[in-house]
Amino acid sequence: MSVDERLAPPLSLRERRRAVAVREIVDAAEAHITAYGPAALSLRAVARGLGMTVQALYHYFPSRDALLTRLIAETYDDLVAAVQRAADTADGAARDGDGDGDGASFVAATEGYRRWAVANPERFQLIYGTPLRYYTAPVEGPTTQAVRRMSAVFERELFGGYAPEQLAAAEVPALSPELHAHLDGLRQGDPAGLPPAAVALLLSAWGHMHGLVVLEVFGHTSFLGEHRAELFRLAMRNLLAETRRRIPGAPSS
What we know:
By secondary structure, the protein is mainly alpha-helical. It has helices spanning 3-7, 13-36, 43-50, 54-57, 64-95, 104-119, 121-128, 142-159, 164-168, 177-185, 196-217, 228-245. The longest helix is centred in the N-terminal third of the chain and has 32 residues, at 64-95.
């Protein structure tokens, strides 16, 4: 519990009841998605499953978009937590002398991502599948913040220990002036933001890792059977080696 949470005034009875009701609605919506897929979600279906009217549900979520935003943000948070736990476990093993050495936490993070996606295919489709019709995420809202938390984990695991000067000098195909300016603009106001060359590397690595997971979740690598985990790990180790080969020098830690 954070200091702010400890100092916050206790919730009133009405607020506690509302929090319980909101949790029940979110849980019911997640169960509905697991059973029928993200596209089938509707406030009417969720209300019916809870034995309440749609009008009553509107008191907690005024629209389908509001409920979807909550579901998407929580799904990202669950995925980020799984990835972070995997990376932390690898870090702990390395400190105890039981790990695989440098880069183990990055590979473990990608494996945590894969395991969560395979275990939660419908929720994975909610955030990475076909865009839901008529849904528009709020600008700079909770879903955007959740995506940034996900990016931050992989950025840290991939580039941790490298100085900004090393990342700026990474070997990547020549970027057009327009693309370089756009990527450079993404870090405006963020002194710790990645330089354009590192952003290009991060997106390339992300696309490789995420693409393999998508293929598996959607059943396109079933012919590999029980070997999928081993081949994924091999691909991630190669990806890490190739990415670091493009950055001059070695990480400081």
